[in-house]
Specification:
The chain is mainly alpha-helical. It is built from 15 helices and five strands.
């Protein structure tokens, strides 16, 4: 089933020429998958690969058997130690819609010497990073582009990254699989809020998450900070798994993050997809639908989280005064003494004071749709429908 846009709805304009270059030699998100999982992804979509993307698909197919073998070796060498590793402390989860500042907050927290986040390499090579990370990070830095496709955030193998990508690498269902076959109907919407899943599906997801947490902990011996917008709608499940976890929820004006999320998806489609999506790709409606779904779940589940374990952080406050915001975060969530981390926070913030954010044009039609579909978001987090994004 192909994803088709309503021809009566305007397309939010995106200047594709402004996407940052993603070199042909750089690994795509699927490059770390094992052979069986990679073939399952292809067969699910009938191997409908655009001719221009065949070289990427062939490269991933060649890499997949090596990932499979290295996965087996990692399990042989580290399997028992992974299973016996306990978290240093309950995880910290950064939640929030895409393009609300979750990456910036994760980068800040990761500068605390007591904390860590999954790195780009750990999520792309989840199956064998304990064996190969040191070698690749040291000698193969050139494989990554300097910046992410959609913005000016620097990319390095050791940069913090979303844990959702690790689920792709492990072969677990994820809504991000939409990117692989971007011209078709998006899969796995049920994993946005974990509703309607069988006990076996939930157990597989939880088991994969725990394994990844234990593997990262084994490598770093630090408290782990996870960041994934998908986790926003999984709040109840994460609280069930980690009753003492802390949750940081970032908010931003929807008129800003909606077009920015569209740009992100289209930049991913251009650099990562195995298909060529049409200009009218239906992503506007998809972003509205997924945003509504994760926040229907989040706002329903939030009341069950103890107040000292969850707090909102406004993007506007975070960028205006990052250090004061972090002091408040540490105090409210009892994350320990903030003083040992302040110098590192300041080092991270200083060169970013002149960071240039992308500007977006949002047609009036979609402003109206955002007001209607996300009215609860505006009301819950104190944004007005007529203010600037």
């Amino acid at each position: 089933m192909t994803q088709v846009a309503d021809e009566r709805e305007p397309v939010v304009p995106v200047d594709r020429s402004s996407f940052n270059t993603y070199p042909f030699w750089s690994p795509r998100f699927w490059a770390g998958m094992r052979l069986g999982h990679w073939l399952k992804l292809l067969s699910r979509h009938g191997f409908r690969i655009h001719p221009s993307r065949l070289p990427w698909a062939m490269a991933t197919t060649c890499a997949a058997p090596f990932n499979t073998g290295l996965c087996g070796l990692q399990q042989l060498v580290y399997g028992r130690r992974i299973r016996e590793t306990a978290p240093v402390a309950p995880p910290i989860f950064i939640l929030g819609h895409w393009r609300t500042g979750t990456t910036f907050l994760q980068e800040l927290l990761s500068r605390d010497p007591r904390l860590t986040s999954p790195s780009n390499y750990q999520v792309y090579a989840t199956n064998h990073f304990l064996l190969t990370e040191a070698l690749v990070v040291r000698y193969l830095r050139f494989l990554l582009p300097a910046r992410r496709p959609m913005d000016n955030v620097t990319l390095r193998w050791d940069s913090p990254q979303e844990d959702e990508w690790a689920r792709i690498t492990m072969g677990l269902p994820s809504p991000y699989q939409r990117i692989a076959f971007s011209a078709e109907a998006p899969p796995y919407d049920e994993y946005l809020d974990m509703e309607g899943l069988s006990t076996a599906e939930l157990d597989a997801w939880k088991s994969g998450f725990m394994w990844f947490l234990q593997a990262v902990t084994l490598r770093t011996q630090r408290r782990v900070v996870f960041k994934s917008p998908h986790n926003t709608g999984r709040l109840a499940l994460l609280h069930e798994m980690f009753p003492n976890a802390r949750f940081l929820h970032v908010t931003r004006h929807p008129f800003t993050f909606f077009p920015s999320t569209l740009r992100m998806h289209r930049a991913f489609d251009a650099s990562q997809s195995l298909q060529s999506a049409p200009e009218a790709d239906g992503l506007e409606r998809y972003v509205l639908r997924t945003g509504r779904r994760i926040y229907d779940a989040f706002l329903t589940q939030r009341g069950d989280i103890p107040p000292d374990q969850i707090m909102d952080v406004r993007f506007e406050d975070l960028v205006a005064d990052p250090l004061e915001t972090m002091k408040t975060v540490y105090e409210r969530l009892n994350l320990g003494d903030v003083q040992p981390a302040l110098a590192e926070f300041e080092k991270h913030v200083a060169p970013r004071k002149n960071y240039v954010r992308n500007r977006h044009h949002l047609p009036e039609y979609w402003e109206g749709e955002i007001r209607r579909e996300w009215a609860q978001y505006f009301e819950s987090f104190g944004y007005t429908c007529d203010e600037e994004g």
